[in-house]
Amino acid sequence: MQEVITHLRAATSHPGGVAVLTGAGMSAESGIPTFRDALTGLWARFDPAQLASEEGYRESPQRGWDWYAERRAGVRAALPNAGHLALADFDRRHPGVLRLVTQNVDDLHQRAGVADTIRLHGDILVDRWLERCRERPACDIAAAAPGRPPHCTRCGNLVRPGVVWFGESLPGGAMEAASEAARRCRVMLVVGTSGAVWPAAGLAGQARRHGATVVIVNPHPSEIDAEAHHVLRGTAAEVLPALLGVVPGGGEKS
User: Fold this and answer.
1) What domains sit in the chain, N to C, each tagged with a CATH number?
2) Mean pLDDT for the stretch of residues 95-113
3) What pTM did the predictor assign?
4) 230 catalytic, yes or no?
């Protein structure tokens, strides 16, 4: 770990010098189930595409809305863990150095204190229209009639969660911003992700090709371990406070 800390110290001299990619394992430490783990109990009988695709939502809007309502409740009840807080503390002590990219759809990074987060897969707590609104002026989603799901009384449009479903494109500009962070950084930390979801999984290799030191933090093997210069076996809450808390800048932690 000491070698990684040395690389991090050097990276703090550069704007955007440290890029971090976080995945579901980080949120799981706060009690938020991963996508697959959420398919338990009542939901175990459903194919993921039935619950996380436009086709499945149109087939049964109430089923889809209820599943996301349950997941939203879990997100709201969760708290940032020590890993989230360590990243936020590092960001406060090193303004302009950290570029945080997440595959997670919760708001734990933001609640911990990292407001400027690149969210590749959207935001589960945000509502959006199922179809692009064609009315002028556009219908106000805040005025949608309650229901499962809520709907527009003006045009009939349904409300859906603001996450990226199977077959959908990433939010406009998100992957471009993430790729820029990977190209510019001197150190990339890949935390709590299996490395199985693309294009996010390609960011580690991109960072390495541009000269960055790649560090994977995960208690389990990932599909992109071969891209790493260093693999730290442990969880975000275990590793990040020890890794980031000793990097001086704006007042080193004692």
Assistant:
1) 2-32+79-121+170-244 (3.40.50.1220), 41-76+126-163 (3.30.1600.10)
2) 97
3) 0.92
4) no
